[in-house]
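Subject: for your reference before the review

Hello V.,

The reviewers asked for a structural picture of the protein, and I figured it would be easier to keep everything in one thread rather than splitting it across files. Below is the amino acid sequence we used in the manuscript, unchanged from the supplementary table.
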Amino acid sequence: MEPKELEKYSSAVSLSDMEIFVFPELMYSLVLANIMSPALWKWRENETFKKLEGKSPYRKLMRMRQFIMDEYEFNLDLNTWGLTNKDVELERFSPFISPDKIAESNALFGYHGDEYYFDLDIRRHFGLDQYEGDIIPYWKTETIEAMDAFRYKQSYTTGAGECVSLAALYIAAGFVVCGIPLEEMYMILTPLHSQNYIDVNEGVITNNRRILTKSMWFNGTEITNKAQRALRNEQVTIVSHSSGYVHFMYEDASISPESYAEFVSKLKSFLKSGLDLTIFANFLRSKHEYMKYFAFCRHHHGKHKYIDARTFFRYEHGSKFKIAADTIDKLFDEVADDDFSCCKGGKEIICVNDFIKLVRKLDIDFSSFEDVSRLSEYLEDYLDSPNDFIEDLWNFLNVVPALPTEEKNFQPEPEINLKTDMAREEVIEHLEGLREANKTVDLAFYAYRDMKKCTWEPFLKASLERCPVCLEKAADLSSPSAVYSWLKNMDDGSIYDSSRLAHPDEVANYMRGDGIEKAVTMACILNSRGLEEQIEINIQSCCLTLSYMGEIYEFESSKEIYKKISIEPDAYSKPLSPQAAAAN
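And here is what came back from the structure prediction:
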C-alpha cells in the first residue's frame, strides 16, 4: 500500500480515538464490523429480545438500554490500552493534519474543553495528570468482541467499553436487534465524548450506556445535565452516518448532504423545548436557586391555595409523584394542610401558573431583545437578577449544538443500503460487494480483522507498532524463550471467531489467544527490543512456527489460515515501552 493508505488501513485495526479523529471514516467502519459480528447476532436469540418479536423498534430500543446497562460497564481506565508519546503521534499524523489543528480539538493533544472542564483541569479530570510531560494514553475503541472480553480481566464481571465503543455498539445493535434502519441513526463525536441521535418517535439520544428521550433531556436532573454537557459546550468534531461523515476541520465530506441537513434539523428540534408546567418545574429542579421566588397554586373547592416551591419540591423528593402536568394533583394530595397558604407568601413571590400564562400571553421570544426587555421589566419586582434568570431559562429550553457547517464539499460514497430484514450472511455478502467502491466499507473488514479477506500489512503494522500493553507485561521477560513460555501458558482461545485475529494488546490484556495471535505478539515484543535478524512466521493451519536467531518456537492454531510472514529488522517502528515513553 501507498504509505498514507497504509496508515489509514492500519488505523482501522488499532482503532484509537485519535486515529478516528484523523480518519473519520473509521467510526462507521467499526459500526459495520460490529454489524458483521456473530457475537451481536446472538443477542437476537436472547430471551429478552425474543419476547419482543413483533414489537416496535422503539420498544426494543428501550429494552436494549437495560440490556446494555446490565452487560457492560463504562470503562475510563486510561491504562487499559497502554501509553504512547504525544510527539510520536503528532509526527505520525502530520501528513494528514497539522499539530495545531489536533491541539485545538483533541483532549490528548492540548484541548481543554469548555469552561467547566477548564476549571476542573482536564488532565486531572480524566486522570491524565498521572502521566509525565508528553506521555499520553491510547484511548482505543473496542469491537464488541473486545468489549465482551473485559470479563477475562481482573476485577471485571461484565463486558466494558469507553464512550465511543458504546456509541458504535448502540448503532449496530439498533440495526441488528431493534430493526432500526441505519439511515435513521447518526453518531455525534465531540473531543471529549461520543453520543448518537436516533430518529425514532420524538427522537432519542444515547449517552454511554443510557438513552434519553426528549422528555428526559429536559428533566433537569444532574445526570441529564452531565449528558447535555458535550452538546452544550463543545464543538462537534464528527457526524457519522451510513451515508458518510462530516468533519468540522475537513472541507470534504462524504455524508449525503440531504441526510446531513435532515439530521441538523431534527437534532435542533430535539434540543429545543417549549415552556409548560412540567418543563418549568424541571428548570427549577435544575436551577434550585430560583425556587425561592416561586409558589405553586392549586385550585381546590373553589379557592386558590399556594405552596412555596422549595417546600413543594421537598414533598416531591419523598414521593412517587412528580411536579408535572399529569401527576401534580396527586402530589398536591400528599401536602399537609398547614403547608398551604391562601396567598402566595409575599409581593416577591410569583405564581408559577401566572408566570407561564404571562410568557404565553406576551408571546415571548427569548432570542428577541425587545421581548426579553418586556419580560425583564415585569420580573424586576420579583427577582434580584431578572436578566440572569431569563438567560438561564432560555439556556435550559435551548441547547444549541456547534455542528460542522453545511457549507462543505460533499462527495458522497455509494450508499451502503443495508436492510433490516437481511440475514447476517446477506449483510456480509452485500458489504463485500461494496468494498471497491466504498472506502468505509473496505476499512470495515480491517476493523473486523478477517485475515482471509484482508491484506496482512495493515494488521502487522498496527500489531508491531502500536501495542504497548504486551511490552509492559513482558518487560521482565528478558529472553525470547521466556516470552515464548509466557505466551504458551496463556489460554488458547481467541476472542474472535473463524479467521479473525486479535492484536497483541488484546492477547496481553485478556491473557488468551490463538497460536497465530501469540506468534504475532511475540514478534511485537522482539521487534520492540530491536531485531538482530529476520523473524519468520510460517502458518500452516493448525500448526505454525516462529523462527528467530536459529530458534524455532511452535504454536497451535484453530484458524485454518495458511500464510508465510517475514519481518525484517527495522521494517516496522518500535512501539514505546513504558520505560521508553517515560524517558522521552
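For the response letter, the relevant points are probably these. The chain has 29 helices and 19 strands. The longest helix spans residues 57-71.

Happy to draft the paragraph if you're swamped.

O.
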